[in-house]
Amino acid sequence: MNTLTALLGAMHDRSPGVAALPPQHSLDHTSPKLVIYLYGDPLAAVASHYRRDHAYHQALKTSGHLWMKPTDFPATFEEYVSRGEDLFGLIKHYEAWLTSPTNYPILFLRYEHMFREEVANQLFCHICSSTGCSADPAALASAFTFLSRQRSCQVSAHMSPLYEQLIQHMDTLPSIFIR
């Protein structure tokens, strides 16, 4: 389960930095060799969290709004869209990861493009080179792209203007890049 207390290291932290590192990195003051930030259609991500029944916990993690009570949180995806408020803090989350200074590389990967062969090849070349993996990156990418399937949570782009500017910014970026 993806709850607020789940031990997932930096996964879903509001911003990068020492506090976002898993405990093994924080204790010895070393940096990770590579952090992967998976980004994509924010409304589809929200729908996915509702589908998996942990939207409230995820919103607490990504927004930092620990004051938010379950009774104040929209019970359904449709209620969330109708409310028109970024309760997940996805806009600030994305901006923080894109701009905050770090002492390690962050690889940004667009969810909707990650199974494209050219993107997967770049992904596994970066992973293998940063970890010292001796596997063939092209073989890993081929196996990965074979797993491609339709996204479970399909939402209409016209469903809500809430994340319109965020999506427009995401569309200006490459499918995969390191900052």
Structural account:
Residues 1-8 have low confidence and may be disordered. With 179 residues, this protein is mainly alpha-helical. The chain contains 8 helices and 3 strands. It has a 3-stranded mixed β-sheet, sandwiched between helices. The chain has helices at residues 23-28, 42-51, 55-63, 77-83, 90-99, 117-131, 137-146, 164-171, and strands spanning 35-39, 106-110, 176-178. The two termini are 30 Å apart. Helices cover 42% and strands 7% of the residues. Helix 6 crosses helix 7 (137-146).
Structural key phrases:
disordered N terminus; three-stranded mixed sheet; mainly alpha; 179 residues
What is the strand and helix layout of this fold?
Blueprint: H1 23-28, E1 35-39, H2 42-51, H3 55-63, H4 77-83, H5 90-99, E2 106-110, H6 117-131, H7 137-146, H8 164-171, E3 176-178
Parallel strand pairs: 1-2
Antiparallel strand pairs: 2-3
Strand order of the largest sheet: 1-2-3
* Percentage of β-strand residues: 5-15%
Which term fits the overall shape? globular
Secondary-structure-based class equals mainly alpha
Summarize the main sheet: 3 strands, mixed
Approximate helicity band: 40-55%
Please report the total strand number as a whole number.
Answer: 3
**What is the average per-residue confidence, as pLDDT, rounded to a whole number?**
86
Number of helices: 8
Instruction: State Rg.
Output: 17 Å
**Unreliable runs:** 1-8
The N- and C-terminal alpha carbons lie at a distance of: 30 Å
H-E order:
HEHHHHEHHHE
